[in-house]
Recover the amino acids of this structure.
């Protein structure tokens, strides 16, 4: 009985470790192929690393949940996940706003230059 | 004195011709600049067919703020002394432009807003919009310490100093109320004078309920942020 539970925990632990490593490798591959700017890669790598650490050291999640007062440790996992995703999403909003501003400036400059040429 | 009329236009091919003709008839000594904000109809073609009208084509649709700001950038680059914004939908009467200019010429103001509410304005408009404008007006009095009753009016004239400020900082969408605060922050003198407004000649009446709610929230957020920045 106890043995069976242990085997199951070990299984999910191995799965989590493999999953985290795959995420990190996937991000590294995207950087290598220049599909991902470092600015964004850092966020995803950070998240991958956090998950790797949590899955390697099982006691960490339990201690964290006690620390913040969560009775059910897996819920703490979701909390960490959601907070990480939120941070990445806010970062995306900032990046999109910057792109929009750059896009506006380019469009205005292009329009002014085109007018200059056509007016000649 | 170099004077420019800026006409931002997005898919206004039904009305822009009439507006340009009226400007030509009523506004002597003005150069005319149409900003075609990525229109998909014949707006640009019609505007370009009027001799003496300059047209700037924006490759992508920037929205009213980005379009008008392009006009300010042009005015600054070419050294214009005044710039007047006149909408392409026929709402603003070019015959009123000289009136709008008077406070600038007398050196009494840096920016003049053509108001639909002072004295003989014939503007009615939907109740929701009027309520929104009232609310802006109240905010203006509280924060600016100045009574500006028609903050959403886009019928405005600016002198060189104001053009300089707005060419550097101008909001993207629903820019009018926020622009007042931007000007005020730079110590610009703002005057409001009564003008007559024609009913819409074409194009659909601007905004739906969700949009006007977004309008309100956006403007108040922007004003709030501007106040925070001022105290930095």
């Amino acid at each position: 009985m106890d043995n069976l539970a242990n085997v199951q925990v070990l299984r999910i632990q191995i799965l989590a470790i493999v999953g985290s490593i795959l995420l990190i490798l996937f991000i590294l591959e995207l950087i290598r192929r220049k599909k991902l700017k470092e600015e964004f890669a850092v966020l995803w790598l950070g998240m991958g690393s956090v998950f790797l650490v949590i899955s390697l050291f099982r006691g960490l999640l339990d201690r964290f949940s006690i620390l913040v007062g969560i009775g059910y440790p897996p819920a703490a996992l979701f909390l960490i996940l959601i907070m990480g995703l939120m941070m990445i999403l806010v970062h995306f909003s900032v990046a999109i706003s910057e792109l929009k501003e750059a896009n506006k400036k380019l469009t205005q400059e292009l329009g002014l230059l085109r007018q200059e040429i056509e007016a000649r | 004195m170099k004077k420019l009329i800026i006409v931002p236009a997005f898919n206004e091919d039904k009305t822009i011709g009439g507006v340009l003709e009226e400007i030509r008839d009523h506004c002597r000594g003005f150069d005319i600049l149409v900003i075609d904000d990525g229109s998909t109809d014949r707006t640009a073609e019609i505007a370009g067919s009027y001799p003496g009208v300059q047209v700037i084509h924006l490759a992508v649709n920037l929205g009213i703020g980005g379009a008008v700001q392009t006009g300010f950038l042009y005015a600054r680059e070419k050294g214009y002394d005044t710039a007047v914004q006149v909408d392409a939908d026929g709402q603003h009467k070019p015959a009123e432009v000289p009136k709008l200019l008077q406070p600038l010429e007398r050196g009494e103001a840096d920016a003049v807003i053509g108001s639909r509410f002072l004295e003989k304005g014939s503007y009615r408009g939907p109740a929701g919009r009027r309520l929104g404008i009232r609310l802006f007006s109240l905010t203006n009095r509280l924060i600016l310490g100045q009574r500006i009753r028609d903050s959403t009016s886009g019928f405005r004239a600016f002198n060189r100093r104001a053009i300089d400020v707005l060419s550097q900082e101008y909001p993207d969408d629903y820019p009018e109320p926020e622009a007042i605060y931007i000007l005020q922050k730079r110590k610009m003198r703002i005057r409001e004078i009564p003008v007559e407004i024609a009913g819409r000649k074409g194009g659909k009446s601007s905004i739906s309920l969700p949009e006007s709610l977004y309008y309100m929230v956006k403007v108040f957020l922007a004003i709030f942020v501007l106040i925070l920045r001022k105290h930095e």
